Amino acid sequence: MEVWTLLEIISALWAMYSVVTWWLERGRLSQLTDKTVLITGCDTGFGNLLAKRLDQLGLRVFAGCLTEAGVAELRQSCSERLQPIRMDVSSSDSVQDGFRVVKEAVGSKGLWGLVNNAGIAGVAGGTMEWATKEDYQVVLNVNLLGMIDVTKTFLPLLKKSRGRVVNVASAVGRMAVPQAGPYTVSKYGVEAFSDCLRRAMRYFGVKVHIIEPGFHRTEITNEENALRRMDQIWQRQSAETKTEYGEEFLQAAKDAVVAADRFMQDPVAVVDAMEHALCATHPRSRYVVGWNARIMFVPISWLPTDLGDLAFRLVAPQMTPTPACCRNRPLFEEK
After folding, report:
1. Is the pTM here over 0.85, yes or no?
2. Transmembrane residues, as ranges (predicted)?
């Protein structure tokens, strides 16, 4: 009886917490037109959609774009409040150029929001063994080191307004996916940096929020691009590696990409989370977005390591194909 009483108390407290949280999260900031936000990676995807959304809400937006085409598209489709700027987050000189533009514009008011959205997939597919050190460096320079550089550069402006940092991580930053080694490593780094930053910046009144999308339809997850990258990484493997893994392994990895495409979700849900992190009176510290992230990636990450590995193999067998040389070999051999 005592156990049931304890469970009832815990359930009642959890229900009360959920209701209070829901109520608080409904509140919105007033005078959004006084707020200025910088978003990186606005050429396409989440960043592009968010820039347009915030512009419609009346915020002043600096939209960082890697390409001139991205700048031109936003200029044509948004109001004069939105200012697209060229920014390559992997280049410190480019980040400093963007900082000077934003600093001159906001003056003593500071910057309300920084959304670190820029990211690339890099080489993906097959297995971690196929990726080189240079492959990791390319992805880390954008997804992690670039994000760190942008954040540290703009922190003085965020401190002035006691503003908010929104970092786009990923569900694979909670549960590792061997087919996307460089990307997964970078997103684990984003999680770690964001947690450290949140705990350090609380003394300055700067809030840090993490967005963890599952599978959503953007240029990074585009099926055609993913299959092309997989062919490229396969072609550069040695003859020994190709024999070791076999063509069937490559085809199985491609089939996994095609299968995953069927589970891609509308990116609008991610933009909704970003908007809430910037515009709510009581935003969340972490947003897990998408049913695949909520029911697969995050729950598996909570399990003990061996159980988590087993669950991953059972839930996503198409993502764990067996190399040709291992098909007739026992999984565990006595030495």
Report:
1. yes
2. none
